[in-house]
What does this fold into?
Amino acid sequence: MTGSDRSEVNKVEEIPAEEKGAFNHFLKSLATFSGDLSSLTCPPFLLAPVSLIEYSQYWTQHPDLFAAITKPEDPVERMLAFVKWYISALNASFSSRVPPGEWEKKPFNPVLGERYKMTWDAIEGSGPTDVFCEQVSHHPPVTGFYIHNDQAKMTLNGYTGQKTHFASASMVCDQVGQSLLTLQDRDEHYLYTYPSLTVHGIWKAAPYVELTGTSYIQSRT
It folds into this structure.
């Protein structure tokens, strides 16, 4: 479903009767609230049963593309492999993780010091990729993460936070922070920032994410 298709969807009539009051109160809060919207409480049907800290795992949902960055001998080809992986990571983080037919939901805010770890199994000989995350700030929410693939001799570490505000009928989330990818065998580093997000469809109870703004990528050998 494209963004234009999603913009036509209205799910208000599907809200459970016992939650319509909470939804209306939430919309009124959005209209009058000033400050960081991450502190607002969403109605239960708009909440995802996961913590925001878990979202960092999606940076390496495609471990084969992640491990492939270091393989080319040509540095230009390595940059192209990086961009291919980066696009796949954005898709995993903000699109494909939402099940077909469902809509974006707000994850729970992690508590300070909360930790999360997991491992992506090897795909096509990529080797396992380990993910470690920790919530290093609660207000504003900031997550630090460290990802490594020992077989490919690659590490990815960084931090990410969000500053949200309401603009027109949409919620804008400016992502702050940066990440550093290191190819140990190449003595090569990629520093990059994150795009902003715009959440549309809130007033229709059918929120979806659109990536906006600019990401910067800098390579150094």
